[in-house]
Amino acid sequence: MSTRMVEVRAKVLKQNDQLARALRERFRTEGTCVVGLVSSPGSGKTAFLEKLLGGLARDSRVAALVGDLATENDAARLKRATPNVKQITTGTICHLDAQMVEKALESWQLDRIDFLFIENVGNLVCPSSYDLGEELRFVLLSATEGEDKPLKYPTIFNSSDVAVITKMDLAEAAEFDLPAARRNIESVRPGMQVFEVSAKTGLGMQPVFDFLHAQLARARTSQVAAVR
Amino acid sequence: MHELSIAISMIDQITEEAQSRGGLDIEAVHLKLGIFSGVDKEALLFAYELASEGSVLEGARLVIETIPLIIYCAACQKNRTPPSVYELSCPECGTPGQKIISGREIEVASLEVAA
Questions:
Q1: How far apart are CA A23 and CA A135, in angstroms?
Q2: Would the pLDDT of B106 be above 90?
């Protein structure tokens, strides 16, 4: 039997991408700096986020969406820093998508927010394919995981904007090779900004706060420029 | 393992496409899959078999074309194939490549339908 070809040329995640683009536009219009956090499970995403929220909440309005397969433990923990925390439980889905973010925001009355963090499900593979409309994506790598993670998961590191090396207080005990880790990050994502932190001791957090404040100031400046 | 989600998105999209064209008897789906897309080819083929059951694609083949990673070298001003997916630099001059030209695709290229 003969066949013919019908050209389609459509991105499979077109719907997600369109929704993410709309969200990004909305965040920009509202002047909210939105940061996505991705990492493997147990790399200290929630501890880092807790420190971020606590530090930024001193002079800014902060909020967080946290994704997990099950339990609301992370949200409960983060609520110590700000009441503006919402858990997205994904069931069996290994990543967040733009629709989940949109839905979570829909049912949530928020005043003007300066910083919104979206903590993805702990996974270094699947979240790389899904744009959530965030302005920046942070990928976390803990000192206890080993320095070759970027080489093993190049896609997620490359799709991120900033790398954060966490648990630096344990680096020596874990014989973490920091220069190698930095080389590996640079290899998969040339020019990537890297922070070294310990959420436990607070080491290295201030540069992250400064970086985020600068991001927000830049976003607000371009927002004013756009309005004019 | 998000290949099942990808397979379902793809099937939904093609179902819509087929309906908008007044129904198509699809024999094969040709998909372009970038090596840097974060999607595993074998896992996607497996997920597709499960997800296509009972859909317009039941029995249709999924033909995956792997798209290599290509970066732009600003020094050579040329598109280049990096040495590996974890070494994004120019194979000729070693300059790190910040711009990806191809390799992230998850794209339905065409449908092979009964004439």
A1: 10
A2: yes
Task: Give residue B105's region: left, alpha or beta (phi > 0; psi -120 to 50).
Answer: beta
Instruction: Say whether domain B3-113 belongs to CATH 3.30.2320.80.
Output: yes
pLDDT attached to residue A1: 67
Per the CB < 8 Å rule, is B38 touching A159? yes
> pLDDT, tens digit, for every residue of A81-109?
888 999 998 888 889 999 999 999 987 87
Q: Which residues of A touch B83 (CB under 8 A)?
A: none
pLDDT for the residue A225: 65
Tell me how many helices (H) and strands (E) chain B has: 2, 6
User: Angle formed by the axes of helices A45-56 and A205-227, to 10°?
Assistant: 60
Q: Which domains does chain A have, with CATH numbers?
A: 15-208 (3.40.50.300)
Residues with pLDDT less than 70, chain A: 1, 110-111, 224-228
Residue contact A188–B87, C-beta within 8 A: yes
Is the ipTM value over 0.90, yes or no?
no
State which residue of chain B sits closest to A126, comparing Cα positions.
Answer: B2
Give the Cα separation of A14 and A20 in Å (integer): 10
**Closest by Cβ to A5, choosing from B5, B105, B112:** B112
B37 near A CB under 8 A: yes
